[in-house]
Acetolactate synthase large subunit (Anabaenopsis circularis NIES-21), 630 residues
Amino acid sequence: MSQNYTDSNSQLVTTDLYQELPTNGTHYAESLPQDAHKLEHLEPQKVIPTLLANDRHPHLTVAEAIAQMLVNMGICSAFGIAGGAMASLWNALSNSQMQVLNFRHEAGAAFAAVEAYFASDRPTVVFTTAGPGITNALTGLFAARGEGAKVILLSACTSAPQRGRWAIQETSSYTLPSGGIFTSGALFNYAITVESAAQLPQIFRKLALGLAQPGGFVAHISIPTAVQTSLVEGISWPQLDVDAYRITAQTEKVAKSAELLFSEPFAIWVGFGARDAADEIYALAERTGAAVMCSPRGKGIFPEDHPQFVGVTGLGGDASVITYMEKYPPARTLVLGTRLGEPTSFWSPTMVPKKGFVHVDIDPEVPGVAYPHADTFSIQSDIQAYLQELLEHLPEIPFATELLPNPQPEPIEAAPDYPVRPEVLMTAIQKIVVEGSDAVVLAECGNSFTWSTHCLRFTEPNRYRVSTGVGAMGHAATGVVGAAQARKGKAVAIVGDGAMLMNNEISTAVKYKIPTVWIVLNDARYNMCHQGMKILGLKGADAEIPATNFAMIARGMGAEGVGVTKESDLEAALQQAIASEVPFVVDVVIDPDRPAPSGGRNKSLAAQGVKANGSNIVKTPAKQVSFPLV
């Protein structure tokens, strides 16, 4: 028997050995890996609420039972689009205690569910009808798995008697592959089709256990149309209280890591998986004088204005990181909750310390993947638990501190008021949105990602969200609605015009009066593609987009919108957007020829033997030719 689960940085683990979960009282319990090199200790953290009570429900339908089960698990919101095949399930959700939000596209609903999870730390539901409803949602669910969210997909499928008979939007093995969509695998940690009400107690048990595990959990429960209305009879519901838990490291391994780290100067590399350990990371840095850098998703976990912060690594990162690694190289780097993948490291050899890494993650498969030839001391543990124990090993003699290179904003020279330079827009966003409000900020993939990651500075965790692994266009443009809804407060998306044209949920935000803000970098291009192809010296590819007035589109949907063409008008427009009680679009016409920030990237590429030659990049044949890694 095997179980899949993901860590807080979204890594898949498949385990074959089990031990009993800690529980309260006498409950069902399913085990997790006890292989000594994979799992050290399980520590209780919080309790998933009791499921359906131990009584019978002779008049309850399967759809109603599922809705009640999800509410009892603490799920408050469901995002999706209905259809005839899931009419009964939609009705049951709509009459439950969940808030049901009806979106305009299933992918947007799934992205919103992902960001609602991260904004609230509560699992969410996506619902779709059969056929294209499911396939439309898959990109957002792919992002859910990649980002490490806890999301449950409820879908409809064709009832058994109609399968193979060309039913409307037939969803069966005749029309869709079963593997990976209706079965557990790379996309879903757990997936099943409900053919009988008798399956529900076991399904509820599986979901409760999955939601209790560390990191993400993405499930798919597909219910045939006829089964949705069948009655739940003769079933005794289990009372299933499952403690959430965290994985903690062996004491001996923590002590050994302390010996490795504290004997010589070391650095700390912070990833998104360490977002719940901000206080411990701060304490460790302050007491050791260690330099701190972060991945793009890790921005704000350690204050970016701290003198020991040397910068953001990877895409949109800071040249100061490479300066630090070249001039003040640490003996080792403590890596916390990041895979060190391409968007975070570019796999640059400059980022490898002389004596290697101490790499902590709840997924034992993560350490050593990005840099397989580097010396890596691997620890499987919850980041916060590991750091709390590591801090007990600090020597009494204080560590020496030194001045470290810090990210420095590039000077902005005087220029004509039109068009708006992206760096000037980011300066205004920093002042009005980041420092002048408590709004969370989401950045879309592409140049929106690089400009925002490079220019904005955060001093607290959980205020900045980007997707680095999947990086789907439309993630922030639609996810911002879920973030604002879940936190019951302002959320701001920095997006490109291409993403806004591909998929946005302005209409949904208007319907539910959700205080979302879109800041559109309007350059009439897929500009990362345009600039990337130009740098590569490749000609003839068309990345142009017809000019679009997004403020007019917003007003046509019932939102408010303002167009900005002058740098002098930026702050007033952003203040109006932040103060607005309705959805708001700030449509900014930006200079399309301003190159996206690449100081850190260029230094990293230079360290790999890649040299600039005029406007082109000259690379050896063995080097990858693509963008953003151009």
Observations:
- The two ends are 44 Å apart (CA to CA).
